[in-house]
Amino acid sequence: VDKRANVFDRIIVMGTQNLEDILSLARDQPTGVSFFAAKEESVPDSYWDDAQFDSVFHMIDEACRKMIKS
């Protein structure tokens, strides 16, 4: 088992697959793992679809502002 995931106080994931992967590695500290975006929704990958760029940018911007306030 990879112990690197247990070194961090907080791990922020961008999608459900990331969450599953991290939780499988960080069995000892699942409370420090959270979604980046609100409402536990995955952040879409706009790399392949330029039409998604603006909405993804605003989603990330909003999540960052909320993180800074908390």
Describe, in plain words, how this protein is organized in 3D:
39% of the residues lie in helices and 9% in strands. With 70 residues, the protein is mainly α. The chain has a two-stranded parallel ribbon. β1 (11-13), α1 (16-25) and β2 form a beta-alpha-beta unit. It is globular and about 40 Å long.
Task: Please work out how many helical segments DSSP would assign.
Answer: 2
Rg over CA atoms, rounded to whole Å, is 14 Å
Which shape, going by the Cα principal axes? Answer: globular
Number of strands: 2
What's the mean pLDDT score? Answer: 79
Question: Helicity level, as a percent range?
Answer: 25-40%
Termini separation (Å)? 32 Å
Physical arrangement of strands within the biggest beta sheet: 1-2
Structural class: mainly alpha
Q: Which runs of at least 5 residues are low in confidence (pLDDT < 50)?
A: none
